[in-house]
Amino acid sequence: MKQNITLSLEKELIKKGKIIAAQKETSISKMLGELLKEIVDKEDHYEAAKRNAMQILKKGLNLGGRITWKREDLYER
Hints:
Structural class: mainly alpha
Order of helices and strands: HHH
Helix content: 55-70%
Low-confidence stretches: none
Number of helices: 3
Mean pLDDT: 93
Distance between the termini: 73 Å
Number of domains: 1
Largest sheet: none
């Protein structure tokens, strides 16, 4: 479902935006909508990657190797 919004922009910006939109055979509204969608998609992707990284960190990584010593062997008491 689409919904309208109202923006307040400088007249010069709107004028240049109309020219660019006409050159791309689209509208300012469609250009802004696509830009906002791109920003939201990037944010969603970032959040998903962050959640995935946090899960990996919580689980931990097996870096190989084995502990073949005891703490007592390392420190004199």
